[in-house]
Amino acid sequence: MTDTVVVAPAASLPLRPELRAPRRRRSMGVWVAEHVVLVTLAVLFVAPVVFVVLTSLMPAEQTLSPSIWPTSWEWSNYLEVFRTVPLARWFGNSALYAFGATACMLVSSVPAAYVLAKIRFRGASLLFGAIVVAMLLPPQVTVIPVYVMWSKVHLTGSLLPLILPNLFGDAFSIFLLRQFFLTIPREYTDAARVDGCGEWRTLLQIVVPMARPGIAAAALFSFFRAWNDYFGPLLYTSENQAAWPVSYGLATFRGVHGTDWSITMAMTVLVTVPVILLFLFAQRVFVEGITLTGVKG
Amino acid sequence: MITPAVIGLLVFFVYPLLASLWYSFTSYNLMSPPHWIGLRNYTYLFTQDPKVGKAALNTLWFVVFMVPIRIVSALAIAGLLVRVRRARGSWRSVFYLPALVPPVASVVAFVFLFNPGTGPVNRVLHLFGIDGPLWFNDPALAKPSLVLLSVWVMGDIMIIFLASLLDVPRELYEASSLDGANGAQQVVHVTLPHLVPVLVFAGVTGVIAALQYFTEAAVASGVASGKATIGAGAGAAIGYPDDSLLTYAQWIYVRGFGNFQFGYASALAMVLFVVASVLVVFMMRRVGAYTPSEAS
């Protein structure tokens, strides 16, 4: 792990050296005590990962024995997952869901957030209020009529009811993007208008390039939310195994395929790895997004 | 430019809200059109439903215990990390990364770690001569086990607290120590007041998340019972063990999609709507404080 996870929210930039309090010397005892606590906690936080990975590499019989270190390293457990369930297909479904939802969200929510942040119009605050309420209300409140709508157009049994609504804006993303757009000084957009740019051109040529980190963060949140979603796929795809995403497939894995913990842990690792990789590629954007909004997708 | 979003709000939010209200006064099962039954769903809900009380209490339990425990542990770890001077980024990663694990994966992992027969947690306890409990298979411990999980994945709020702690102007500490304040007094009079907005925000979002607590509880029940087929066979494992993990959101799901009582499930949903709205109104006032003012 590199040290670059460090957040750089504008507010926490280091103060100029002369403003900094002289470094107080702390007693050795306090330093040792703090580090003992930290190391203990760190071990507790890392231990689950270690146990899961070790178990995923054990022979199946060994998961029933008290020894924790694999007696032989069964890398084939990971292949076994693909043989037991249509995992490649489920990964494909997850990718379709995550990329599809994110692409649809960007197309609709970036313009909507731009309008809310940069254009004054009647009803703007009412609209923004409605978006905040939609973002905060539990999905279970509206889930039944929405399900009825999708069943009337015969799209239940697929992930489309979870992807398509993003074409009409996603409340959380609009909220997040608006926050970013607000930080762009109005002079830029006003100047573009004075120069005769239409709203679309102002958005695409002035605002989007300046708000790229914010848009990237919104896209990442959207991607993670879709990849991690369980409730949506449970609702719409539970009876059609061919449409399951990996998160849903993993939740049913142990019940359907017995109590073999080593294979179950191998699948757990497989479902987690893409998310961690994506994070490592984009960690700065991601952590800034969390710090700015206070919310994880 | 904003038209699609307005349509989206109307179709996927305003209409469903009104439709839920209408369904809640009807008997409706998707096969035949809804027919009006007045307040019968609501009288059943408040007087007869055998499990709604249990489900509401379980959800309340998560609100009362999970939310504060998560916040306090995130704050404690952020407070430790802010004092570390070397390799701060690596320490932060250790405590942040679990937050990235997909919820289903983290639940499956925890049910394995805590499984009574062969789970590493009980093996480690055994080394210390302790007979480990049944964790996710014990009605009294299933919810606390999920609290442990929620602490493991507290990284997102920990990052927010850390940013806020780093943000406390050092002059304040300096000035207060010149005035003779000791460490504890500084925490109470300097650090905590600075954190209040972030704490309120974490508290209210935490409560809203707890009100809709579904995935972790449903998956834990399914995996721990060994009958992880909810959906088509809804109800087999829901709430396992002994309804201790049956949350209100799951009860809406069971009545709606397990029993196809869309009218009754809508009544349950409307009650949740009222409770959540009270909290959302409270929260909306706070959201304003987080909207960055325009830079110009």
Task: Give a written overview of the molecule.
The complex is a heterodimer of chains A (about 300) and B (about 300). Chain A has about 300 residues and is mainly α. Chain A has helices spanning about 30-55, 75-85, 85-120, 125-135, 145-150, 160-165, 170-180, 185-195, 200-210, 210-230, 230-235, 245-255, 260-295. Chain A has a single domain (about 85-295), classed as MetI-like fold. Chain A is built from 13 helices and no strands. Chain A starts with about 25 loop residues before the first helix and ends with a helix. Chain B has about 300 residues and is mainly α. A two-stranded antiparallel ribbon of chain B has the order 1-2. In chain B, α1 packs across α13 (about 260-290), α3 (about 50-80) crosses α8 (about 155-165) and α3 (about 50-80) runs antiparallel to α10. The two termini of chain B are about 25 Å apart. The chains are: A mainly alpha (about 300), B mainly alpha (about 300). At the A-B interface, α1, α3, α4, α5 and α7 of A face α1, α3, α4, α5 and α6 of B.
Would you spell out the secondary-structure blueprint of this structure?
The complex is a heterodimer of chains A (297) and B (296).
Chain A: H1 28-56, H2 76-84, H3 87-118, H4 124-136, H5 143-152, H6 160-163, H7 171-182, H8 186-194, H9 199-210, H10 212-228, H11 231-237, H12 246-256, H13 261-293
Chain B: H1 3-23, E1 26-27, E2 35-36, H2 40-47, H3 52-81, H4 88-96, H5 103-113, H6 120-127, H7 142-152, H8 155-166, H9 170-178, H10 183-211, H11 215-225, H12 248-258, H13 262-290
Antiparallel strand pairs in B: 1-2
Helix pairs in contact in B: 1-13, 3-7, 3-8, 3-10, 3-12, 5-11, 8-10, 10-13, 12-13
